[in-house]
User: Which sequence fits this backbone?
């Protein structure tokens, strides 16, 4: 303490004090805003975004979802579904829906990124819901092995252990997950699109979701160590292959070997 | 050789190799064996080679399987994976699964050998199945080969057993789900099911014993039994001699083909390497059973696309087709305080039971119906036994419906149809499919026979229209040469065997039933063209014109 009191009249003391004050206030501000981010949307939606989104919504979505997204007999209310749901459905091309069917199909995206975020901002402004996840949760970098365990326990029964997709009842299906972005995988987990259940943060923590995305990206980039994967569909594809290709080639050889006499 | 037969001193070979050969031969009698077997004649036809494919696949299974045993550890003790496959690093699993992963990723050539073993296993059962279909549809199971047919059926069951015990060994999620289904089927057996399950698994499923038990069955008991059955099978093939397709100069007292040595032995030896090569290529370029995808077995998760290997698929399919309720009636019932899970028991055991019972007993069923107890070494062309072919196709279609049902989810996703509709259609086909197949096959076979008869009598249609001097148009028919005609007319066409009284002069009920079946078998028949009919057909004019065309003059 004595040393400190002796140095308080040092010529640089004022500068050091100023620097300290700036660092503390800046740090506090950074923490406060990032906490804010975790709760709400990363993309700070401006009033103009909401307004633009409202116009896009009225022109493209309101036919089914109703004015003010309050729902109609053709589509559900979107109040409270959150920005994540809009970003997933519009960002993967599932919405606007082409036609009614067992489930909305993935197709070429109709809106650009800015329009998608405006639509998301508009829907998010109608009621609180899951926000678009932060990049650090969706870019991988988690524990692939832990993610694999979570995936097998929670996801593989519909999406297949190798994420190759699977059938559901009455024409519905769980899609294959290769080439789906981490952001969309995360959003699907928190919003439960189509027939998918919602995996909220109490069910699978954000860290767990990050691990699952890491696992999926890992098996996608690893490829198939054993050669062509035949669609990763399991024994049905293998059986079909051995009967058609394996036995087919062998029959061709038997015919060749016995062609002289018969 | 000329005058050497008189008081010849002991034969001494001239070269060193010759002396060694003679030394061995005089002690083991190799030349006698070679003389006997080297002259065995085998007819040449591509459809006769599936048994060989099965045999060669089995040899490849033994070789690759031995390699795998060096590195596989069937323990169910818990461990944490520490190999080089990153997505499973540190995951808790059994030693069996961990060692399977090590074979795949850390043993040099291990993944290739695993894939060779698995592809060879699928090909083994497939070639056994195709071989049996060939034997059935050509009537090769008839006397004297009924016992060998039974040995073959036992081999099919053993092949399936070998496959299933092997499928379960890696202790990954897929194989564990398969075992869980087996456990469920066993537990559905009334009263004793639970006891058998506890006995098999050494306690509550999955326990810690099942992998090592299955391993012993897989590497010791089942292959030994298969080997024994193969020896019996081949021994009987040698004793009975090979069957042959009908053709000029072929009858029940001869075999027309190549002798085993040297041509046939060279072909067969070369064929082994072809089969090996095909399997090796499949193993090198196409992954099979990627156990690293499935993760360690844990009783809670079940992955989509969980199926058994193809040969168990029909049982899985039957389970998938079975409804839990019929109308309002629950198939699962409680009697006397015991649960009777008929919705598992019926589909798991009944279709397989029917298929195998008919398969084992068919030679005797047909023998009883036809009263045909003669030896047959010349095969039937499938069309010339329409009812047998139709029965075979009915069974085949029934099997295929159940087989398809095992892949119902993939049919739904890949053809963009509703899984429920796939199930409803397959349920209908389960009952209707065999009947349709029977009727269609029988009609097609009879139609083909009529076509054969037509061609034998009137020759082949050439498509050439000729105008006769008096203005009539006819199509020229080219007559067959007699070798081709023999194939079309040289077959037996059994007739209905009416009921006859026994030695007491009584027509028994059993005999009446037999007569009824005989009528069902042979009522619709197309007789082969007789020599008289062929002679008569010559007067028809078509051939006369053809002959005239040949000699460039109208002589009649």
Assistant:
């Amino acid at each position: 303490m004595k040393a400190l009191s002796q140095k308080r009249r040092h010529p640089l003391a004022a500068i050091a004090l100023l620097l300290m004050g700036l660092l503390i206030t800046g740090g506090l501000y950074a923490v406060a805003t990032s906490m804010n981010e975790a709760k709400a949307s990363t993309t700070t939606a401006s009033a103009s975004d909401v307004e633009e989104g409202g116009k896009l919504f009225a022109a493209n979505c309101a036919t089914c979802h109703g004015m003010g997204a309050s729902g109609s007999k053709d589509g559900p209310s979107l109040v409270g579904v959150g920005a994540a749901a809009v970003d997933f459905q519009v960002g993967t091309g599932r919405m606007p829906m082409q036609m009614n069917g067992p489930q909305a199909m993935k197709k070429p995206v109709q809106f650009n990124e800015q329009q998608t975020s405006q639509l998301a901002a508009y829907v998010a402004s109608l009621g609180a819901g899951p926000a678009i996840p932060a990049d650090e949760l969706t870019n991988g970098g988690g524990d692939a092995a832990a993610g694999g365990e979570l995936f097998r326990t929670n996801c593989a029964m519909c999406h297949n252990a190798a994420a190759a997709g699977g059938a559901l009842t009455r024409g519905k299906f769980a899609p294959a997950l290769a080439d789906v972005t981490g952001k969309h995988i995360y959003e699907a987990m928190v919003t439960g699109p189509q027939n998918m259940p919602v995996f909220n943060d109490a069910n699978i923590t954000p860290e767990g979701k990050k691990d699952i995305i890491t696992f999926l990206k890992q098996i996608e980039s690893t490829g198939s160590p054993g050669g062509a994967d035949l669609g990763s569909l399991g024994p049905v594809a293998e059986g079909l292959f051995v009967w058609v290709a394996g036995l087919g080639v062998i029959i061709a050889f038997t015919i060749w070997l016995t062609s002289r006499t018969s | 050789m000329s005058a050497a037969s008189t008081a010849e001193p002991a034969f001494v070979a001239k070269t060193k190799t010759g002396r060694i050969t003679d030394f061995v031969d005089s002690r083991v009698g190799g030349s006698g064996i070679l003389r006997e077997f080297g002259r065995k004649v085998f007819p040449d036809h591509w459809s006769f080679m599936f048994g060989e494919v099965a045999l060669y696949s089995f040899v490849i299974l033994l070789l690759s399987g031995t390699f795998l045993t060096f590195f596989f550890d069937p323990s169910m003790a818990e461990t944490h994976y520490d190999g080089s496959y990153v997505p499973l690093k540190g995951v808790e699993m059994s030693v069996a699964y961990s060692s399977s992963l090590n074979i795949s990723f850390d043993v040099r050539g291990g993944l290739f050998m695993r894939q060779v073993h698995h592809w060879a296993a699928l090909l083994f059962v497939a070639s056994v199945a195709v071989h049996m279909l060939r034997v059935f549809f050509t009537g090769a199971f008839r006397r004297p080969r009924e016992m060998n047919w039974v040995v073959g059926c036992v081999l099919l069951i053993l092949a399936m057993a070998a496959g299933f015990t092997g499928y379960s060994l890696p202790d990954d999620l897929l194989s564990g789900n398969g075992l869980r289904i087996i456990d469920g089927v066993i537990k559905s057996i009334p009263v004793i099911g639970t006891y058998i399950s506890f006995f098999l698994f050494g306690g509550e499923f999955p326990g810690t014993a099942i992998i090592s038990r299955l391993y012993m069955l897989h590497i010791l008991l089942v292959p030994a039994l298969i080997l024994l059955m193969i020896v019996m099978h081949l021994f009987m093939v040698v004793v009975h001699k090979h069957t042959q397709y009908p053709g000029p100069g072929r009858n029940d007292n001869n075999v027309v083909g190549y002798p085993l040595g040297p041509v046939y032995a060279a072909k067969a030896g070369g064929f082994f390497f072809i089969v090996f090569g095909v399997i090796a290529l499949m193993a090198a370029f196409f992954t099979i059973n990627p156990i690293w995808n499935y993760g360690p077995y844990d009783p809670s998760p079940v992955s989509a696309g969980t199926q058994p290997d193809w040969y168990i698929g029909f049982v899985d399919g039957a389970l998938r087709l079975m409804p839990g309720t019929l109308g309002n009636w629950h198939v699962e019932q409680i009697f006397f305080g015991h649960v009777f899970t008929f919705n598992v028991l019926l589909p798991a055991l009944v279709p397989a039971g029917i298929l195998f019972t008919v398969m084992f007993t068919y030679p005797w069923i047909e023998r009883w119906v036809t009263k045909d107890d003669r030896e047959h070494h010349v095969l039937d062309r499938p069309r010339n036994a329409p009812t047998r072919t139709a029965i075979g196709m009915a069974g085949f279609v029934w099997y295929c419906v159940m087989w398809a049902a095992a892949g119902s989810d993939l049919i739904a996703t890949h053809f963009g149809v509703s899984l429920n509709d796939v199930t409803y259609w397959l349920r209908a086909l389960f009952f209707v499919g065999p009947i349709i197949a029977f009727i269609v096959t029988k009609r097609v076979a009879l139609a083909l026979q009529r076509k054969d008869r037509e061609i034998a009598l009137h020759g082949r249609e050439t498509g050439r229209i000729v105008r006769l001097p008096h203005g009539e148009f006819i199509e020229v028919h080219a007559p067959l040469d007699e070798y081709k005609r023999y194939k079309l007319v040289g077959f037996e066409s059994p007739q209905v065997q009416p009921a006859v009284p026994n030695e007491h002069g009584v027509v028994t009920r059993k005999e009446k039933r037999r007569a009824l079946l005989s009528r069902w078998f042979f009522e619709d028949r197309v007789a082969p063209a007789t020599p008289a009919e062929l002679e008569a057909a010559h007067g028809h004019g078509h051939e006369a014109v053809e002959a005239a065309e040949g000699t460039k003059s109208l002589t009649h």
Notes: Chain B touches chain A through 76 residues (CB under 8 Å). The first helix of chain B runs from residue 16 to 28. The radius of gyration of chain B is 30 Å.
